[in-house]
What we know:
The structure holds two protein chains of two kinds.
Chain A: E1 9-13, E2 18-23, E3 31-38, E4 45-50, E5 55-56, E6 61-64, E7 70-75, E8 84-92, E9 108-113
Parallel strand pairs in A: 1-9
Antiparallel strand pairs in A: 2-7, 3-4, 3-8, 5-6, 6-7, 8-9
Chain B: E1 4-7, E2 10-13, E3 19-25, E4 31-37, E5 43-51, E6 54-57, E7 64-66, E8 76-78, E9 87-94, E10 99-101, E11 105-109
Parallel strand pairs in B: 2-11
Antiparallel strand pairs in B: 1-3, 3-8, 4-5, 4-9, 5-6, 7-8, 9-10, 9-11
Amino acid sequence: DAKTTQPPSMDCAEGRAANLPCNHSTISGNEYVYWYRQIHSQGPQYIIHGLKNNETNEMASLIITEDRKSSTLILPHATLRDTAVYYCIVRVLGGATSYDKVIFGPGTSLSVIP
Amino acid sequence: NAGVTQTPKFRILKIGQSMTLQCTQDMNHNYMYWYRQDPGMGLKLIYYSVGAGITDKGEVPNGYNVSRSTTEDFPLRLELAAPSQTSVYFCASSEGETQYFGPGTRLLVL
């Protein structure tokens, strides 16, 4: 079972910031928060990940609360091409005896509106 | 790099037929995965592999088999196709932080 909960759908006006929330109240200390997105009919695409600190890259920003029980993905200036399903995932990175398994929940369907 | 490639893109099977979904990656990743995605749902892990010669079951392995004879290839086999296996199948690979997904194979079992 997915270890995260997300709203099933959200709307965002084009050019505005899209803030996608995710709850992961049972996250373990060694689990990272990952975000992927899936544009219709395509394979999922990696966006960003983090452990404790806030992270930013060319696609998005990730804000993780201090207790790590929730996070928010921020798309600073949403465009129509950002319309997709966004998945929040928690996972442990592979080690000597562990494996790099990702379990996807149903995600949040983001619609960017002109 | 081509990344992760999958063939075929689309296939229609009759009940009871068998087929192999091909997956190849050229990034020299040790980890490879097969997921299925039903309409409106998230991805469910079918099988995964941590390296050549090593495979293990995921959440929904029944009705499928895999093999990993090389680092590059991770084929998924359906022996007796059933309507419940109608889905979109995604292959992925990773080495550490990020999974890279293929474009998917749409399978319709009638």
